[in-house]
Amino acid sequence: MKKILPVANAIVAVVSGLLVLLGYFFPGVFGGLQSMLIGWAIILAAFALLLGIFNLGMVHWKKIGKDGSGSIYSIVLLISLAVTIVLAGLNGPTGTLSLWIFNTFQVPVEISLLAILAVVLVYAAARLVLRRPSWYTILFLVTVVVVLLGSVPLFFLGEVAVLTSVRGWLAQVPAVAGARGLLLGVALGTVATGLRILMGVDRAYDG
Amino acid sequence: MCRKPNTPVQEECLYCQAPLKGAGFIAPAEPAAEGSQVPPSEEPGEEAPPAQSDLFSSLEDAVPDWLKETEASFLESPAPEAEGPTSEQLSDQIDALINQPLTSSEGQGPAIDDDWLASLLAEAGLNEPSIEDLGTAQDQGGIELEPTGTSQDEPGEEPPIAPEQVQKPDWVSHLEAGSTIKLEGGMPPGEPPDRGLQVSETTGQEGPGEVEIPDWVGKPGPEADTPSAPETEKPLAPADLPGWLEALKPSEDLSPSEPVEDLTTAEVVKAGPLMGLRGVLSAHPSAIRARKPPTYSIKLRVTDEQHARVEMMEELLANEQKPKPLPSKPIISSRNITRLVVALVLILPVIWAIFTGSQRVPLPQPNIIPGVVNCTQSVQRLPVGASVLLAFDYEAGFSGEMNLAVSTAISQLLMKNAFMTLVTTTSSGAALAESLMNASLSTAGIPEGTSAYTNLGYIPGGTLGLLGLATSPRAVLPYSLDGDNVWAAAPLNTISGVADFSAVLLITHDPDIARSWIEQVGPLLQEAGTPLLLITSAQAEPLVRPYYEAVPAQVQGMVPGLAGGLAYGQTTGGSPQNGTWDAFSAGVTASVLVILAGAITGVVVKMIKAKNKKES
Amino acid sequence: MEPVLNLNNDILGLVFILLCLGLTLFFTYLSRRGSAIHIRDIPAFRHFHREVDLAVEAGKRLHVSLGRGSINDLQGGAALIGLTILDRCAREASNSDRPPVTTSGNGVITILSQDTLQSTYRSLAAEERYDPTNARLTGLAPMAYAAGAMPAIHDEHINANFLAGHIGTEVALLSEASERSRSLSVAGTDDLTGQAVLYATCDEPLLGEELYAAGAYLGANPAHIASLRMQDILRWALVAVIVLGAVLKLLGIVP
User: Which CATH number, 3.30.450, 3.20.20, 2.60.40, 3.40.50, labels domain B372-576?
Assistant: First the structure.
């Protein structure tokens, strides 16, 4: 059984992947099968989401059992999780209470984290020369400064037309070109990864 | 042969089983006893036991007469006096020992090196009347040998020595005395052993089959061939001793010291190889009592300083076992202070601008930002009561940047009396959409619960779900979040595919989500001529702009970032910014200043370090 | 009846897929025959082995974060690479007192990471070391995922962080947390904005498709090296096609 299960898993994965791939190229022949398999995948993803939430609860439940400084936060998390599930279940995802929880807690917290992110990025950019001294770093910082200055009129100086034009050119020509190149490389890597899965060489699902 | 004393009546040695009855000092040879020393056990005058072999008979014949006479005198003399030989006597004796006269070249027996001496010693010990008398060995007679002529060339001139004149050499007696003395680390000085030995040439009695004497023993001169005859004793002339020999010679002034202990009452060993000796440890196994050696307490003399050092060492070793507490991280470090300073530099201007409601910075114009005008016009061109699909695919954290543009778009659609269908591919999109709709409705003065929109909720499956939504939205989202079958009633009952909507407005912060919508849903929209409008974050604008600027355009209108939202708001009649644009400008200016300061500082520090490195 | 194939797009796509598959199989065959391949040095992967050894010696643990990408999307490729890195981490640190901990922002990735850890320990005959809570879902939204992963970096005695998957700008928060906890951060993502942030905040960033070479550099499988060669060849082929197309467009040959 221990030897049969991994082989069976590999066969199922490879056959399913091949059918979905062929469904893109031969929709008339494999289209129906592809839709069915994709539907199953979507349902499994939804259940995986539930399992992930259950895993989250278990991790923090274990953390409460251990003596540590973080146990109080685990208690808060578990209580919040339970209250939100109960309220959203009773009130609906767009009910008054649910929206109150969303607008009172989630939105401000996420906005605050994004604000912290802005401070972190500025601090990291300020230390970049010390951390990674190279000409690429200088180029990076010059680009950052030009784009920032061209994005908005400066508080005391006002808008500088040259900077706005340079910023526009930078954003549309070299930045997009580089981004397209990166995306092509990422796409090739994704294709290679997918093919390794289809060949059964790379098994993330080994049972 | 083993030099151990045996009783006179013994025919064989008690220890080595060598035959003791033989002629003189040479025991009768036995094949098994070859090479072993056989001490002579018979008294002088006794006939030697019949020779076991011709070899030993010839050896017997090779023993010089003086030696035989010495043996006889040793055995007969009561108490030879121990006298220290003179130097001349010593040299003569040694020469005599070395240059033994040879009887003939043919029948010479083998040279006897030390065996004769050992046998002599043994006989001296064996021929004592009783074992108890060994304690007074000093008085016992030994072979007293008078020095004889030492010349090798004139061995024949040496007179024969009568047995009664043979005295036990002093060194033999001293050896005996030393064996009875319990020594404490050294040999007691004693009289030098009497090394006087008389070497008499052989009488020429040669037996058949004699062993040849090796050359190194010395060849006697022509006079050696002549049979020796008993000669009258002549005093030996003193010889000149070599220096080294002189040094070896024990001092004559020294007198044998008295034994350290009086061994007269000491126990005599009755068995074993040391039998007969007094005051020695018996080698007999039964004499040795195996017992545990006594333990002695060892108490070191330790000074106070040493004691203190020992304690220090013990403490050091003990501390190795104890884990050292980790150094606590400083709460306030330079990095934390820098972070705090940067945060304050960024936040304070923003707060000031918001609180003061500053409007110093000019607002962005719609014609400058590409896509804003087209977006406005696309919405304006929609028919009244049109069905519009709104996809809320941005995170709550980007609300501050994008809510202005979204609110403006919703307001414009409400003015058009459009029916908005809300979908999302993010987990929090449904709540975000609902919240925004409620806010926009309240702003527009439209009561809640109106049928201006329907919220279909979350599209599972990501990109796959989008493909399904594009082809069959009813299958992917059959019900609204309220549980209503909205596809059965107007206005969605005429919608079979995404292309049937009048417009699709995608609100996202992520360029990947934008690309997914454009690539999965866009082709169907293009075929039907349905406009795809985008409200994006500033971070996604560079990657989405090519789709807008493509020919044919895959995106018909876009509103990027806060600037685009403000510009879009101006196109619909202007919305108050409440210092948002000024705060944004202040924040960006502060960021630029911080980055420039940090970069310049970094460059200067690196240059200084490089300079110091070069100098060192 | 629907056409079996759309000639313009489908055939090209099919040919491309078959070409990739053929090249991968060919180079896999060559590598099994013993043909050596030289790959350039990437400092991030060099530090990987060192950090794993340091973590084992110091009694600390490794943190692998797989991002929030879904398997159903394009971001699934980066997530699968993250699982490969997780497998190598678990193997190399199998004798450590503290097994590696993994965080993710997607339910499917969380389950796959649990399965990866379990199968790794099973193959090492150390299944008793497997703890399902070592693979955690920290949050479903990007900021929630980052906010949940940061305590793991601070509290779990982390020696090094390997962030591999679809991670956006929130990677800056994770890098900041690793810097505060004085642990190394090696990160790679397929998200473009995330890569820009990585360059400024991370100790060892993996830019572009360097993330997809992780399997080849960490010795996961010979097929990884074969697919790396395939990527290199096709990259040059794409460059040639793009340049040719631009030239033809410039000359007016292609409308």
Answer: 3.40.50
